[in-house]
Amino acid sequence: MSKDNKILEELTSKDYEHGWSVNLEADEAPIGLNEDIIRWISAKKEEPEWLLEWRLKAFNNWLTMTEPVWANVHYPKIDLQGLRYYSAPKKSNKPKSLDEIDPELLQIYERLGINLNEQKRLQGIAVDAVLDSVSVGTTFKETLSKLGIIFCSFSEAVHEHPELVKKYLGSVVPMTDNYYAALNSAVFSDGSFCYIPSGVRCPMELSTYFRINAANTGQFERTLIVADEGSYVSYLEGCTAPKRDENQLHAAVVEIYAAKNAEVKYSTVQNWYPGDKSGKGGIYNFVTKRGICAGDHSKISWTQVETGSAVTWKYPSCILKGDYSIGEFYSVAVTNNYQQADTGTKMIHIGKNTRSRIVSKGISAGKSQNSYRGQVQVMKRASNARNFSQCDSLLMGDRCGAHTFPYIDIQNPTAKVEHEATTSKIGEDQLFYCNQRGISTEDAVALIVNGYAKEVLNQLPMEFAVEAQKLLALTLEGSVG
Amino acid sequence: MLTIKNLHASIEGTPILRGINLEVKAGEVHAIMGPNGSGKSTLASVLAGREEYEVTEGEVIFQGKDLLELAPEDRAREGVFLAFQYPVEIPGVSTTNFLRTAVNQVREYRGLPALDAVKFLSVMKEKMKLVEIDQKLLSRSLNEGFSGGEKKRNEIFQMAMLEPTLSILDETDSGLDIDALRIVSNGVNKLKSDKTATIVVTHYQRLLDYIVPDFVHVLYNGRIVKSGTKELAMELEEKGYDWIKEEVNAASV
Ligand SMILES: Nc1ncnc2c1ncn2[C@@H]1O[C@H](COP(=O)(O)OP(=O)(O)O)[C@@H](O)[C@H]1O
Ligand SMILES: [Mg+2]
Prior knowledge:
Chain B: This is Fe-S cluster assembly ATPase SufC. By secondary structure, chain A is of the alpha/beta class.
């Protein structure tokens, strides 16, 4: 065995930290997927008729669709009839306030380092916690509501703010957008809703923390963020799941709407269970995320640190409709062992003088495959559109793969589109240099990788950036020598 | 402090070092000279533990320990420092951040508490003066876009921060103009004590005017073929290496 491989073997030993699960009594839908199940979910959530109609329409559309096969990922066919589409911990029954949340649920989040107790929370972050199919609690609601900010679970929004939900649901990601989005539209169970009124700058980070606990259950959450004129919000999303031998499906939809002069920053640290060293188990993460810069001078910025999941299929995108609007995508995607990631973005320039910036940093280790897939589209009337794309790949060892698939479609001659790409390897030279200064190989890898990903990590809110750095190091622990 | 006995090393099956013997005591400065390709950097790398080189014979004892048994990072923590002939770039990692990690890992190994940010910065300020290095340089990505001279100066700065017992300087003079050479040499001289030793690898006498060696060795074809005092360096400067090559070749016939 070569030295590289030997060290790879030795080091790919780190266990997934959040791999535990708790036995909770749950309120579950029967296994399988059909109209009755959808009615069951809708009834369970006491939804208005229009929403049930919407779901059923999505379902009927979905029936006519086929799973996309163009992504550079390979996995056995998922038996969608073998899944359960709704599972709620019995104890979560609509707590009126945080004090009413069952301590056992609070404990789950505490174990994950998420404190739902407002007094104990760090100032500056409001959390909506979603366990399996439902939201179990949202913090700082009152503080926020004084400013007119709505931050609650999706189900609650359906009841309390139906006009907003009705207006924006599916307006950015139509129910027929793609196979997984259609599936989500039919069966989504919960998620977060957020509305920032005109002129309001949200004073704290809003965050959703997703946790899959139940076995054999898909998670289909929806997030809808609406930033009205001149408002600002920074939104964070985190996720983990227990270790299970079978694969679990996660198919979420995130929609962002930014009105004139509004700015939304959306950051994700994705840490779903990636499967074990031999590639067994792990989450299939098929997510549709899209934002529309509807108004002039609006801005949407996606930042993602993708470390988990067995298979990732995810392209947070921006539709730059308003003139002078800006879309950004900053991504670090790490794959190790047998993980596969096909991720990137779409920037669709429709308005005049629109700008977009893409910074993608892929890191592949083990036997993993990491693909960047990005599309830059400049429409006819988008004069003076600008795009800059930087796609870097870092390889560790010689058994992994990095791929880039850039698509560029320009229909206006005034557009300026720049694309830069690099591929590098963590060099023996770099590691030896670090070792010679007394730094262990593990720490050297962490140092080098964090340096490589710095431009993206810098986009994250402080507290999150530190977490992300640790996570990168953890994911790669033992991937190079 | 350091005893090298009959050291043989090869790379990809090609022998490069072919029986090196060297004894370095605390307080001494040894210069290793020799024509290009004679194995000087190889010797430095083998001492520092670079794994591409396979040690096929011989032993190296450093402060009573079998150096060749130790991982490269442990050699560094034990006090072996190598100033690289070609320092490596690490994008996105500042020298400051890099050194903080290094210093604290070395301290941990030596049973010392970690330096907090404030302490670390004050130590850094003090050592910066030693090699007249600019703070701005230290906040940039390590060695990325540094001039040749800046890289070398940065190596000696790192040496100052890590306080090694045995320093091996591999062609630290190359790429330095005369002022920088003086500054860097002064730094090295200030770091010397009767408890530390220095091995200076160079092929110019010029550096040895500043860092005065107690012994000069000529490495040729993987062996030390001649040893002497600083006068030997003068002689080499004057006459080149050919006469040594001839001597060696004549002896081997
Ligand atoms: N990685 C390597 N692969 C093959 N040959 C090498 C390698 N490194 C050094 N060598 C060879 O070893 C010999 C000694 O090199 P080196 O130690 O760098 O010499 P010096 O530093 O004295 O100029 C040279 O012939 C060089 O070509
Ligand atoms: Mg050399």
